[in-house]
Specification:
homodimer, globular
Chain lengths: ~325, ~325
């Protein structure tokens, strides 16, 4: 019915739009919500407190080892929900396509979204497509909003870190950012670079079930990296934080790449990792739970919340010095997500 | 703190992002959900069935008589919720900014969003900002997802049109599309062109309260215009539809502009109008309710659902002929919303 490129007509709301919806979107994402083709989806009643989030994805390149803009847009939004302790229920997808974008690539992305949704147990309940003229966009941008619910009595927030809390990081640092960077730059570096993009809500659910109110804070260190996330938590909770450089899990290849490129892994984006702040006595058990799951296989206790110096994040360096950790100031890596 | 243009740093998730959030977004949109600065917003419990929708806005130009991309992005998403009978509760905003976009314009847009939200009685509960390099976007794109609930026992759908239903159009046709087109083309046409962009949920609520199950279908004829919306309803419900050309409200200036430009007002986008399909006996009362409100001042009964010719939409022309109405095929006006 249509050629191999996105046309302005595909964004018209007319017949070409209907073709695109049927031949690509519904083909991969069919479900009763979308099949309705209504202006909005009636989700029905949801028990518990609602949680709502939104994120746009402009990653460049669109395809990379470990994922693509499609899976990233599903997992990234799920993780924003998970960081409040919420179980994701449904997503919306807003596509902004550039005229001339290959329909083959669009379909690859949509089928990746479908697989990611299946893996994560969520459905796409609403969607929209706009097309902008050639040169006014960049292939494809995706906005993914997400709805979840807090079924149990969790109270997870960046403002709930308390003195004595132990800080667990769920896995190795900087995998996503360094993978994107090496792909984009065409640098041939030693090492097996794969994005860590993955959904974290199953891990969070297990932690929540076990820790309950003892689970204080969750944060996924995406843009701005670990350093910025820790500073945000310290600022929101009015506490000091100390981490141990030696305790930070980083893959050797990623560590060398950072050294060669002059980048600090503390500031590089992750897309499948989270910081977990728990009551002191519960940290060992939490760590055990995390390590049993693939998402938390490399989890480590990396530091703790300290009484003194509110809002201040310090790192005890590998050789025993102390370094003040500040939030990211400038953008080292644009379009990482 | 920052200069007068959007920088890549503003999308970094670091300090520049925080400045932008504080100095522009929170300044105009502050509320407890956003002030949290969490990854997602805990909305709490909502009574009734949830309704969810998403829409991206890429309108060109960004500012036009009767609105701008900001107010459009609020009302457009509210109207998608309203077309299922839902009352809007909260919105998310996803900004994709082009490096170099004027912060002055961004603030104008955000303050317009704030005014639109206040007028409509909704809050922005979640947000995200990405920045793409110069030449990879076009100033600003906005995705607005929306959450609403169906408090009463309404059952409104494009598939519920029934033989005998009367079809009411809430006001004059093609105002938004023609306004955008004249702005963009720089054509100096006679007439007072103003977008009809406005929220329709108050009108829908009054109709729902009165009509209950007698309110069958609502649709806002945006992209694709009245013709495409009618075809979608006829297709979803498997019914025939007949409308009367003479009954269609069109402003004289808009009508002349369409003639001069060779455009058919039936296919031009509206942003503050809706089609209302009601049980035959209730149409006069529904019309009265609509005309009492500013959104429905020019409402008119334009046709009815007929028994024969399922899926077929016909128009009785001004001189008494019959014209088959088909959905929009090609895009006459890209980036209208």
């Amino acid at each position: 019915m249509f050629k191999d490129k996105v046309l302005l007509d595909h964004g018209s709301g007319g017949l070409a739009s209907q073709d695109l919806i049927r031949d690509i979107f519904l083909k991969h994402l069919d479900n009763p919500f979308l099949a309705d083709l209504e202006d909005s989806a009636v989700i029905g009643e949801i028990g518990g407190r609602l949680v709502f989030t939104t994120d746009s994805y402009v990653v460049d390149p669109l395809f990379f080892p470990g994922g693509d803009i499609g899976s990233l847009s599903v997992y990234g939004t799920i993780n924003d929900l998970a960081m409040r302790g919420a179980s994701p229920v449904c997503l919306s997808l807003g596509f902004i396509l550039e005229e001339g974008f290959a329909l083959f690539d669009l379909e690859r992305i949509v089928s990746s979204i479908a697989r990611a949704c299946e893996k994560a147990g969520v459905v796409v309940a609403a969607g929209d497509t706009k097309v902008v003229p050639r040169g006014k966009g960049d292939g494809i941008f995706i906005n993914t909003s997400g709805l979840g619910f807090l079924a149990v009595d969790l109270n997870i927030s960046a403002s709930r870190a308390r003195t004595g809390d132990q800080i667990i990081l769920s896995g190795t640092l900087a995998d996503h950012g360094i993978t994107i960077l090496t792909q984009r730059s065409g640098l041939e570096l030693e090492g097996d670079f794969v994005s860590d993009s993955m959904p974290l809500h199953f891990l969070v659910r297990e932690l929540g079930d076990f820790l309950g109110e003892g689970l204080h804070t969750l944060r996924d260190p995406t843009r701005g990296g670990l350093a910025t996330s820790l500073c945000e938590i310290a600022g929101s909770s009015g506490v000091g934080i100390t981490i141990e450089e030696r305790a930070l899990p980083v893959k050797p290849g990623v560590s060398s790449a950072c050294e060669i490129l002059g980048l600090d892994p503390l500031y590089i984006a992750n897309e499948g990792k989270c910081l977990v702040l728990v009551e002191a006595g519960m940290a060992d058990e939490a760590l055990k739970i995390m390590r049993r799951r693939p998402e938390g296989r490399d989890a480590a206790i990396i530091g703790s919340v300290t009484g003194g110096s509110p809002d201040k994040v310090e790192m005890v360096t590998g050789i025993g010095g102390r370094r003040l950790i500040t939030p990211l100031a400038g953008e080292p890596l644009p379009r990482i997500c």
